[in-house]
Amino acid sequence: MRHTRDSARQEAVLTLPFWLKKACVRTGVARFLPIAKRLTHGEPHFARYVSDRVLAAPVDALLDPATFPQSAGSDIVNLNLGVPALDIAPRLVLPRDSDPTDAFGSLDLRTAIAEADDRHPDPASGILVTHGAKGAYAAILDAFVNPGDRVVLFDPSSPLFHLGAESRRAEVRWVNTWSEDGRTRFLSAGLAKAMRGAKLLVIAQPANPTGGQFSTSDLEEIAWLANRSDALVCLDESFGRFRYGAAIPSLATLPGMAARTLTINSMSAGYGLHALRVGWLTGHRQLVRTVALCANLTAPEVSPIAQAAAATVLRRDRAGFEPTLRQFRERRQYTFDRLEGLGLDASLPSGGFTMWVSVAALGLDGRTFAEKLLREQRVLVGPGCAYGSSGKNFVRVSFAAEDGRLREGLNRLAQFVGELKGGGAEVVTAKAAVEKPAESDAIPSFSRV
User: Fold this and answer.
1) Cis peptide before 17 (omega within 30 of 0)
2) Which CATH superfamily is domain 77-82+322-433 in?
3) Looking at CB atoms within 10 Å, which of 8, 319, 327, 387 has the fewest?
C-alpha cells in the first residue's frame, strides 16, 4: 500500500505544469521533490543549473526501458531490432581532409541521395545531411516548433516523435489508428479535429511499430487537411525500402505538399548501417535552409568518412535490393504464421520489418509480457506502451534478425506462450481483444469505404 501511495505521489509531481516545475527549481524547493532527484541522479542540489528544455523533458519516458531497451547480451535473442542485419558494408576510399563539406553535407553524398530518390531533389539546396533520422527530426522541431504549438501524431508511432515534441513544450494531439490487411486506418473526424490550428503533422510511411501504410486515398485526405490547416509535414520514410505490396505515391508528391513537406530518411533502417549515423532530409529549399541553420547550431559536421561510406552504399546497392526484399518478405510470412499459430493476434505488415502483436488474450499487458519473456526466456520484444496509449496491450516483434536467431527467438516465444496458457491464464478470443472504433463512430465516406 505504501508503495502505491509513493508511486501516486511521484506521478503527481512528474505531471506538474511546466511553470510550477520551473518555480520549484528556481526557488530551491525542488531539491526536496522526487523529480529533482530523478533529473540529477540523486543529487538534487544540481537541479538549479538545468535549462527549461531539461525541465520540460518527459523524464519518466526517457528513463523507461520500454522506450530505450537495454542492450541485448549474447544470451538474449533480440526480437526488437529496429535495424536489419544486412551484409552491405562498403569498401571505402577515405576522403581527403581538404575535401569540401559545407553546411548541408558533402555534395557527393547529396548527389547520391538525389540519384536514389525518384523525386529528384536538388542536391544543391533541397537536401540536408544530418546525424541520423533522429538528428533530422530534432532539427525540424527546433526550426519550426515553439512552446504551445500543436504537433499532430498518429497513435501508435515511434516514441521519439512524442518525446521530441514534448521536450519542446509542444501541444501533442494524437489521432487513433488501427490496421487492416497492412493498411493504416483512421477516422477522418479525429484527424480533422486534431489538425485545427496545427503547426506540424508527423507521419511515418511505413509506420513504426505496426508496419502499416496509408493508402493513396488516405494520403490524399491527409494532404487536403494539411493544406487547409497550412501545417508543415514531417514525413519519415526510414522504412520505405521495405514495402511488400503495390507502390503507393509519396505524400510529398501530392498537390500542394511539395512546399510544406520535409521527408526524412537514413542509412540505418533502410541499409542496416546504423553505425554510420548518417541521415538526411529533403524538401523545399526554403524549409531545408531553415532546418540547416538549426542543425548546424546544435549538431554540425556529420563525419566525412561516414558520408563517404553512405554515398558508396547508395550508389552500389540501388539495383541489388530485390533479393533482400524477397528474403524479408519470406521472414515476414514466417513470423506471422508462427505468431498466428500461437493464437496471438498479429497484423501482417505491408512495410517495414516489425509486427504489432496483441497479448491481451493472454491476460497480460504488453509491458508485463515483455518483462516476463525477457526474464524467463531471454527474448527481447518491445512493450507497446512506448508507442502511445493504444499500445498498452501490445508488443512489437521484429523479424529483422538473421534467420537462425529469428527461429530461435520465436521458438522461445512459443514455449513462453505455451507455459502461460498451461498455467491457467485466461485465454479469450484474440480478435475480440483488439480495440477498434465503436460502431457508432461511422467511417466517413471521404475516400475510404
Assistant:
1) no
2) Aspartate Aminotransferase, domain 1 (3.90.1150.10)
3) 319
